[in-house]
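Hi there,

I know you've been waiting on this one. I reran it after we fixed the sequence typo, so this is the corrected version. Both the input and the resulting structure follow.
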Amino acid sequence: MPPTRFRHGCLWLLAGGLGVAVAAGDETVRVRSRTFDIEYAVNENALPLDAVQLWYTQDDGATWHEYGYDEDRHSPVTFSAPGEGAFGFFLVFTNATGASSGPPTPSTKPQQRALVDFTPPVVQLHPVRQTTQLGQRIVQIRWTAVDSQLTVRPLEIAYQRPPETTWKPVVAEPLSNTGRYDWRVPDELNGSLALRLTVSDLGGHRVESERQIVELMPGTTQPDKLSAGAAPAAGKTDSTADADAALPGSKRAKERIAKLMAEAAAHREHGEYVEGIARLREAVKLDPQRTEAFAEMADMLYRVGDLDRASNAYEIALKQRPNLRAALQGAAMVDRERKNYSAAADRLRTILRYNPNDAEVWMNLGDVAVYQGDEVLARECYTRATRIDPAAAKTIAEAKQRLALMTETSRGFRANGK
């Protein structure tokens, strides 16, 4: 998929001085991909450019981070976001006369803003139950919707009466993500109908649940009784037992999820990652809050080379548990594969904030430093990995091997006079 593009605004570098005229509005652009292009325009009199430097902020200018340089010095410059959320950008141009400005400071406002949201919501419509209250039929609609950037009222519920193809709203206005809604069924509705949820997030994603067919109870049913199709406590048929198995928190659902997780682990053990991914997909459908399943599925996706889906699964896991080591480390490896070394280092440092004695993470941070060309930092990280946890024998051996290779390489360069 090509990178998303948005107009950065017209940034004019003046040829005769250091001033810069900014013609960018306050509009925040929504971006639904991690990597996207920022376009810029420069006065022809200012050409050729010696450098185009991009800075970004995630707190509206309170702190700024240097992202890097546009290597070809021609619009656009490509940005790969370290995560989701609100970003601000600032460009500094340099030509023979000097720079358009100094680096941004805490008082500098962004020249352009973007809301980055590349992970669609996860939504699950659970089996409905039916009852009556004072003779009024009630359909109890329950759901799970997971996303860190949902709108204030992200839920829409609609119904369809087969064979009709039109969907009609159950509620006129969108609902908050409460996980439940009791629908008072209009008297004129009878027979079969389909229900569907639609969830929207700030990035503009709209995700629909699988539709669910409901056989409405007759209007003469006794008050306050669950319908036969709503899994009564005793005498369950096969169909109601299956519904109970899909009900989050039920005993059968937990048993099914445990079995799926065990099967996925066995497939992983034998290198059968595609089969393991299929089991984990089923598990997270039954329980979208099963964080470890998302993290494990992401790891298997990474192993089969599906970086986009791996990244999405890691992001979902981190939305649920921001300090989950497995998800942070896995996401860092995806970032490293994509050459987004700054984001990879940030994720690894997040792990170290919670556990500064994690030898494996120190070694991984050293690997990232090597890719960044920072040999001094790489040596420091590898050395820490050899000393910080005496019990991490395998990691210590690997870190020592890396240090030895770096030393050997340095000697080779000196021997060749380089």
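Quick highlight: Confidence is low (pLDDT under 50) at residues 1-25, 220-245.

Best,
R. S.
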